[in-house]
């Protein structure tokens, strides 16, 4: 190799070292994902997402007629790359049964069945909250979601670090899916 090429190589390495140490520049672009967030009225979807985006959950107004729009959820499924299902772990038996049926429908829906799911057992700060193990058993997640990619996590507005960790886990599942697509 000529002296000129060696000098150019060292200059380039010096440039890379300089950039790495001094001029980090903007961080690399993060991938964006289209997610659908579903759950029954009062499960805390809007409050959790508002708090996650550093907005005050105090100004959140419950969706009017939310029970009536459940039949339209599937209109939002197309193009989704992941699902966030929020359930009220402190809800009544009737509401928990309804949430269970809706989650089962979502897990089996043709547009969602191959997508990763983040299932958030919200309102863990309430005395009547069911544990993650109780939710997993009641919702029959082990047999129903076998072979699917899903995460069940406890959450509440009081523990944003746990919520952020849950979303990080979902992003990891989404990135795994991206890497699988590249390998194919």
From TrEMBL:
It comes from the Eukaryota. The gene is ARL15. The lineage of its organism: Eukaryota, Metazoa, Chordata, Craniata, Vertebrata. This is ADP ribosylation factor like GTPase 15.
